[in-house]
Amino acid sequence: MSDYIFPPAEQPSVAVRGSSARYAVSRIFCVGRNYAAHAREMGSDPDREPPFYFSKPACALVPSGATVAYPPATKNYHYEMELVVALGAPVFKVTPEVARAAVWGYAAGLDMTRRDLQTEAKANGRPWDTAKGFDQSAIITELVRASETGPMGAGAITLAVNGVEKQRGDLADMIWNVAEIVANLSQLYHLHPGDLIYTGTPDGVGPVLPGDVITGEIAGLPNISLTIAARD
């Protein structure tokens, strides 16, 4: 006999390379403007101030290789290729050294964005929720354990649309590295296993249309792909 009025939603989770067990996800944090060139292309003048964050619901996760509908309420649907961090230990108000040890694994991810809604929200001083936290907006590959990848402090990160390269950067270009991001975020939240962090995107973001195929690579991680279907 259930104690719920309606059946609870399925637990969001991510596949793990080499394992049948899955990583249960509770929260998705995203870092804004963590590559200087991308910050400039979005109209900002980057410097080393503390990073800022926005979030996506865990139910927005979609596995790499999927086909998703072009989302409603936008005419400017963008890709953003990102390194994703998965935490494996609780941390709160920690140093970068402690934060580094709390990283359980990494994945490649796409932070899909309704750019026109984001632009409107920025202009009016409003939150980015409708631009960033919509259905099927967080694409992710299998997770790879940090013990297999190392610290992921450098390495190529690229994205192509229909085979044409659009983004190319290096993880070393991040303004705030993984340990610094986790340490800073831990000043704001009690972080736990199940928390994912999308760490920002290089420059070259742009729109996609129905029929387009996005592919991306980060050195040492599974390749990511996404096909855009007709408008939802």
Automatic annotation (TrEMBL):
The keyword Hydrolase is assigned to this record: yes
Superkingdom in the source lineage: Bacteria
Pfam family, one: FAA_hydrolase
Keyword Hydrolase recorded: yes
InterPro entries listed in its UniProt record: Fumarylacetoacetase-like_C, Fumarylacetoacetase_C_sf
GO function terms (MF aspect): hydrolase activity
Keywords: Hydrolase, Metal-binding
Segments forming domain Fumarylacetoacetase-like C-terminal: 28-227
Protein name as it appears in the record: Fumarylacetoacetate hydrolase family protein
Source organism (scientific name): Roseateles oligotrophus
